[in-house]
Amino acid sequence: MTRIGLLSDTHAYWDEKYLEYFKPCDEIWHAGDIGSLEVAERLAAFRPLRAVYGNIDGQDIRRRFPQVNRFTVDGAEILMKHIGGYPGKYDPSIVGSLMTRPPKLFISGHSHILKVKYDKTLDMLHINPGAAGMSGFHKVRTLVRFAIDQGVFKDLEVIELVG
Fold it and tell me: What is the pLDDT of residues 48-59, one digit of tens each?
């Protein structure tokens, strides 16, 4: 079993609570708009980090992380892209990849809106962890934790960051 801490849209904001809530996690995944290399480095120093760059990320982050990241963890194929849309309204930039070879889990960020939705058509879970930073219109900052156990997703938790 692999425990995942998932966040997005930090926009260069650092909160020590990231480490507090991700302490039980084996890996941290960031769905883009990291905002600064320092945030990425602090996360990566704490746990192995998988990430994609977002539309606000500069060349330093774009050199380190891909725009699209497809990987397998504990028997589940994952596809992550910052601007990805959601079931029923995927972004045109990723819809071809999703339709051709759907992963078990598609992760996106960008909207600052927490959303966990199952796509019955593609037999795929979609997670947008919302926004963990301070920049944007969102009123509540959120993180997501979940586990992958031999290709099965379980124990999903939404964490609201207060303060």
Answer: 999 999 999 999
